Amino acid sequence: MVSTSSAEAASLRPGIKAPAQETLLTPRFYTTDFDAVAQMDLSGHEDEIESVLAELRADYNRYHFVRNAEFDQCWDSIDGETRQAFIDFLERSCTSEFSGFLLFKELSRKLKGRNPVLSEAFALLARDEARHAGFLNKAMADFGLSLDLGYLTKNRTYTFFPSEWVIYTVYLSEKIGYWRYILIYRHLEQHPEHRIYPLFKYFESWCQDENRHGDFFKVLLRSQPKLWNTLGGRLWARFFLLTVFVTHTLTVLERATFYESIGLDPDQFNKDVIRNTNETARRAFPCILNTDHPTFFLRLNTCAIANQHLAEIASTQRPAVIKLIQKLPWMAVIIWQMLCLYLIPSVNAEQSRETVR
Ligand SMILES: [Fe+2]
Ligand SMILES: [Fe+2]
């Protein structure tokens, strides 16, 4: 359940960082049922698909990801715990951008000749994610490390997700990515004294890529009625909203040092990201979560505290079986809290879709 990536930055070769140990919280690599995606019936939604495709083709950020002279300096001033937290943030972001690239690239390749419209769209998404991952990897190089993305491609395990799950989760990860980047950008715009590294200046246009990616997945989601007008669709929508928000809370609070180093209150940042992402999901999902429920964030924070106990247990030298026994009660806490959160009545989004952003 916990990541040990805050441990020392172990190297495979000098300057190449060994990937953080894979855990439930590290960004995953996905594969899916390519035939199901190729056969998706998009009839009746051609206009929406064409308009998101036009946005992707426009390639607004073609010249955006170019490193300026501000990067050309020594970054040893970012040191100690802040440096480690920073490298962690860069690695996690780079891995999830790269994970998106691999999935989109493979979708584009497998759909070529079978579904040219979707194949082109996925190729354009892969183009953006490759830029994002590459830009982050160059930032890691400023700290004397980089990820061997070829090694990662071959050696990470791929998790199979049915195409429906891919649509829900990628939609949410694009939109949560949008909100994370834009909220960090706006905060640093108001507090430039905390902008300790120039990467953050790129987040404003960058997050628009993620927004467009999310909009593309919104069209896919709305084109498949079973994803939103069935009981199963509503239950899955709630489940994925919840798992994305729990994962976000755990990772943000586990890496509080990073957010504090740029002057953000991690707890407030987490709440802002979740509230905004949940509201945005109103446009695509059949229902959203009730983040105003009095126990909503309390329960999320209880999960984060249990996760910190799990991290402490994992970092000890005790035998594996002892660690497992010690972990069980904390795992039970997380499962119980998630169950309680899942049972909070959701908010019907179908009624209000037209009136929200
Ligand atoms: Fe991205
Ligand atoms: Fe994206």
Descriptive notes:
GO terms for molecular function: iron ion binding; magnesium-protoporphyrin IX monomethyl ester (oxidative) cyclase activity. Pathway: Porphyrin-containing compound metabolism; chlorophyll biosynthesis (light-independent). Its cofactor is Fe cation. The protein is mainly alpha-helical and 357 residues long. It has one domain. It has helices spanning 34-38, 46-58, 80-111, 116-141, 149-155, 163-190, 203-223, 231-254, 256-261, 266-281, 296-314, 320-343, and strands at residues 11-13, 16-17, 29-32, 146-147, 158-161, 287-288, 347-348. The strands form 3 sheets. Strands 1-2-4 form a 3-stranded mixed β-sheet. The longest helix is centred in the first third of the chain and has 32 residues, at 80-111. It is globular. The model is unreliable at 1-9 (pLDDT under 50). The protein binds fe (ii) ion (2 copies).
